[in-house]
Structure formats: C-alpha cells, structure tokens
Write a structure and sequence with these properties.
Rossmann fold, 12 strands, elongated, 434 Repressor (Amino-terminal Domain), DNA-binding, homodimer, 6-stranded parallel beta sheet, 6-stranded mixed beta sheet
DNA sequence: TATCTATGCGTTTACGTTAACGCACTCTTC
DNA sequence: GAAGAGTGCGTTAACGTAAACGCATAGATA
C-alpha cells in the first residue's frame, strides 16, 4: 500500500493524501474522512526507505555521560556499546554527538546538556546521575526525545529507560557471598562517597539477603574520595577478627581488593563487586576478586541507541522500560580475548 | 558523496559510474580507472535508503529449526528472538519464512531446507543439529547466505555462527554444583538419547571441573527417549546412597526434577540444568531446580537475524563468530513477569 | 556495399515520500 | 467592485540508486 495507491482509491491526488496523513491542513473534512477510511482499511505503513531518502536527514543522538574515564571505565563500557550501535547504524544516517560532564560538580550535567541541545541534536541519551540537573534539562521546552541509561528518573517522560534492578543485584550478590563463603563471619559493604541511587539500593539488597537468612553480621563503610582505604580497612580487620567478605557496590572493587591483598587478608575474605571493567577483569584473573555482578553496560548503551533510532527513524514505539538481566561473573565464565571460538 | 557527484568529478555520466561500481562491463579501462580513483579517494558509500528504495525488494530469511515445540520450548525461545528481530525490521522489508524439521529423522532437515530454498529465500538461518544434512544443504550450489545458530558446523562457510561455548558452560555448571553442594558425594550427569555436540561438550566440561578439583565421584547416565526415568533414577539412588547432585545437559532438567521430588530425594540433591524454558522457570520457582545455565536462546535468534540483515541489506561485514555469554540463573536473579520496573 | 555485432557511454524512468508551488474559487473588507 | 486573504486541491520536483534503453562508432561478416 503506497500513497499513490491510496490516492487512486480515494480519487484524489497524492498531495491530498500526504496532507491528510501529515495533518497539514487545507483539506475538506469530507476528503479527510474518505482518505482515512482507506488508510485504516488497508493499513497504510509509510515506506521507510522512501521516507528517509526524501528527508535525507542525519539523525544525531546527543550522548551525555559522566567523564568516560572516571570510575575505572564503567562509562567507557557504556560508550563502547553506543559506538557499536552507531557503527552499525552509520549507513542509516545515525550519528553520535558526545558530551561529558563532571558528576561531582552540581550544574555540570545541565550545562553540557544545554550545549548539546544547542548543537541541534535530534535525540538525547543520558545518564541522569545528577537527578536535579537531569530533571531541569529534560524539562526544558525545546528538549528532544530522550532515553535514560544506568538509572531511572521518576516524574519525567522518557522514550525509554534502560536500567537494571539494583536491589535485586545486591540481593544476588548476597546470595553469591553466602555461597562462596559458607563459613559465616563479619561482612562489609563498601560504598564510595557519592550517595547514588544504584549504590544505595545495592547495599540495601545485599543486607536484605542476610536479613532474610538471619545469619552473619553485616557492616557498612562509606569511603570518602581521597581517604586512605588501606588504613580504614586495616582498622576494620582489627576490630572484626572474623571478617569473611567484602561487597563493593560499584566497579571500584579492584582497588579495595588490592588493599586487602597488601594487608594479607585475601585468604580470609571473599570479594564481590560490580562490573567487568578492565582492572576488575585483571583482578579476577589474578584471584583477588571472587565474583562480579554485571549490569551489562555495553548492552545498555547499545540498546539505548537502538531505542532512539527506532523511535526517531522508524517511528516504532519504544519499550518504556528495559530491565537488563543481572549477570553473575565467576572466573569460570570470564571471557577473555583468546576465548574459544568454533572454527567454521 | 553520491553517484552523481562522482560522475561530475570524473566527467562521465551516472550510468557509467553505476556500471563501474557494479562491474557491469561495457566501460573503457581508462574510464574505470578514473572513476575508481575518485571512489577510493572520496570513499563512496551507497546511500542505503536510496538503494533499497530502488531495489524495493523484500529480504526474506528462511528459518530452519527443529520442531518449535519439541524439547520443552528451547527452539521456541530462539524463534521468539527471531520474531522480535523480524518485527523490528519489518519496515526495513525483512521477512521471515519458517520451516521446521524433525531432528530425530535423518533427512528431514535437508528436505525442509531444500523446500525453503525453492521458496526463494534470500538467506538462511539454521540450526545444524543434524550435521550431515546441514552440510549437504549449505554445500548446494544455489545456496544463499546462511548463519548457524545453537551449534557450529566445521568446514562450511557461514556468514556468521552464533553459539555458546558448551564446554565452558558445563565447566561453570560444575563450579555452581560445587558451590551449591559443598558437602561432596556422588554426582550424576544426565544426557538424553541424542548424542548432540553441545550435550557431549557440556558433560565433558562438567566432569573436567571435578577432575581439576580432584573431588567427588561423577557418573554419567544416558536416558533413552521413552525410558522410565523414575526407575533409572531410583536404581541409581539405591546404589549411591551419597548422591548429592544432578546435572542435566539440556532443558529437560524439570522432568528429572519432578522425578527426584517424587522419589523424595530433593533435599539431598542439588539440581542444575540448562535454559530458562517455561517448565524450568516454574521448577526453579517451586524450588525443585537450584540453578540453570542459560545460553540466551532469544538473543541467539535475535542476533542471527540482525547479522543476515546487515550483510544482505546494509552490505556490512558480519562477525564470523558470535560467542554468547554464559549466564548463571539462580532464584535470586530469576526475572518474573511482575518484576520490578522503575516508574518514570 | 550492406548488414550485423560489440563496445562505450549518455539519457531516462522508476522506486515512494515529502513539500513547495500554483491554480481556481469563495469570502471579506474598504 | 476591486484587492486581499483563505481554502481545497492537483502538479511537480526533488532525494540517490539501479537498470533498461538508445545512440553512436568501429570492426567483422556476408
């Protein structure tokens, strides 16, 4: 079913059909009815190729993330997924425009986001890790379609939100801690200074697991940006001689693991953390980290780009929420570069 | 860079450029050189939208899978992923043509595959679970582009192969068995009658894990199609009073789990199996299955379709092998329909 | 010499959609 | 009652690619 076929059936010109389809006015109500009846009956779907050929527009997605090389590369993994999608979608006229902000600095997200909008992006892909800033940004009148990644932002209206359930992630971490470390003893949950939504929920899920099991003593520690981790840890080990496990709610696990090694405490401590950034991969291969929970950052970035593309260029409905599965990574399913691949 | 721009630069007509680009002959060697120089210099990429509009072809992918409702729905999960991709790619003129074969019947794959080729498909997506048949099919002269899914097929030339490493999957299953069941005791690996590549490798990986650990006694059992599972199991339990775990190399785990329950042996037996088909999900929720390894069947199907689409319609290079990560599923990360989703 | 074939190249049409343009007509308004 | 604004609609020109068609010219065959 093409526009000209509709035109023939309705006994009008294709221009008229086009005006009806795009509500461009200047059509008699009678005619509108006649055309719409046919459109509904036969189920007209515009031809994507013809449409985009004619529009011949670049679809630019503004990407707004924290500094890619902050936090040991987590955001960079997300960006890798974004780039992969962008590469695939290059022939379909999708482009990426990246802006990075400093998440520790109030106002930075908003400033960079506004700059991005001024550069005429067609859509926005952002991590709303500074909620107030993000809310102001997407609340702006001239704001384009947007998707959230990494964390949700209530009371907004995104095309889609790509996240993982942090509570369940923490809960699963609890289960893995229990499995890897059945002897019991004191446990420590470490958060870094930022009081991020995901971090809090993960810590909550972890302690909920042990609350459900009625076992173990669980403690929490909040480490400041430039604190001496080794000293805090050492103090903790001295007070709690039966320390048996540490859960770090983010990708900083390898740093804690290094300290634990230096303190000679690895053998008594099960280490669980988040995300397969490069230093964590190395730490796991070296045996200083026992288990990682992954939120599939590459997948999140990749998927988010595709959601926008489908909405913007294919006019498809996006899924309002995409909940990323929670992956458990043990040394046994750690994929390394030289991983097995079947020869064909 | 468009064809007409090239034509202008080379001072020839667009027809000539077109003939050069498509090696359609009837162009002077001199002219070919001149045009190609410009093409290489400026890096011409055909406009996908214009190209596909002009060709206005439906790209039909023939899908050749075992009966979708055999094996408790594993193949149906794959097909769901395929359908999801097809739905997304509908506006890009991608279509699916499904054929099912009986994997227990030699020649069925080949017969259905040939029928599919006769129906003029542009590409083939198949599970080469009957290797001899599959080899004959893709070896045919008029065979189109194809991708393999679920298992590889050596000595063929697919566009892509989407698989998981079955040995590592089994190895990981071993690790999970060890974690979930630290007491030790006799272990049983169950394969069903078909001597499939994946099944064998998984069993091998599982026993390798325990060989590496130098612990446990591990047995293997092969269950015939219509054998009395209960009786075989009962016999086994009687002989091995310290039975502590069962690993089923495929999605039939829930059936074994049912028998174990009936025999009153669940409390002494850790159950690990494969794939999140519906009966397995229920069994896990009910507590009769402790751990599942997933090979992400939906993802496999979804990805395979996209590989063909990118090759066929976008002329992009496909990845020769896509190795699907090995997922561990415990009750704690089992996602159910009413799973948490952030409100936006 | 007339006819045929091969070669090199330009021209043209079509794919389906979008949107600018223009024509004919009907109301207003001074 | 003439100029201006508004309405309904058809026509047409792109967008970039693919491929059929046609037109010269040159050499080969009858």
């Amino acid at each position: 079913m093409t526009i000209s076929e509709i035109a023939k059936l309705a006994e009008v010109s294709i221009g008229t059909v086009d005006r009806v389809l795009h509500n461009r006015g200047r059509v008699a109500p009678e005619t509108i009815k006649k055309v719409m009846a046919i459109v509904d009956d036969y189920g007209y779907q515009p031809n994507t190729y013809a449409r985009n050929l004619k529009l011949s527009k670049q679809y630019t997605i503004g990407v707004l993330l924290p500094q890619l090389h902050s936090e040991f590369g987590y955001w960079n993994l997300i960006y890798e997924g974004i780039l992969k999608a962008a590469k695939e979608l290059y022939p379909l006229a999708v482009r990426i425009d990246l802006a990075q902000f400093d998440r520790s600095q109030q106002g930075s997200l908003l400033k960079e986001g506004e700059a991005l909008l001024k550069r005429k992006v067609d859509a926005l892909l952002l991590a709303p890790v500074v909620p107030d800033d993000a809310r102001l940004l997407v609340g702006k009148k001239h704001c384009v379609d947007y998707v959230f990644i990494d964390s949700p932002l209530p009371q907004t209206n995104p095309v889609s939100t790509v996240v993982q359930n942090p509570f369940r992630g923490g809960y699963l971490a609890g289960r893995m801690m229990h499995l890897l470390n059945p002897k019991g003893g004191a446990l420590l949950t470490i958060q870094t200074y930022r009081s991020a939504y995901n971090s809090k929920e993960r810590a909550r899920g972890f302690s909920q697991y042990f609350a459900d099991k009625g076992q173990y003593r669980s403690y929490e520690l909040e480490i400041q940006a430039n604190a001496d981790i080794g000293q805090s840890l050492d103090a903790f080990y001295r007070v709690h001689q039966d320390m048996s496990g540490i859960f770090v709610v983010n990708d900083a696990i390898h740093r804690i693991a290094d300290r634990v090694l230096l303190l000679g405490r690895k053998s008594q401590t099960t280490m669980i953390g988040y995300d397969l950034v490069e230093p964590n991969r190395k730490a796991m291969l070296a045996g200083s980290v026992d288990c990682l929970i992954s939120q599939r950052p590459e997948y999140q970035g990749y998927t988010a780009v595709y959601q926008l593309y489908r909405k913007g260029l294919l006019s498809q409905e996006a899924e309002p929420t995409i909940c990323v599965p929670i992956d458990v990574i043990l040394p046994e399913n750690l994929v390394d570069e030289q991983d097995w691949c079947p020869k064909s």
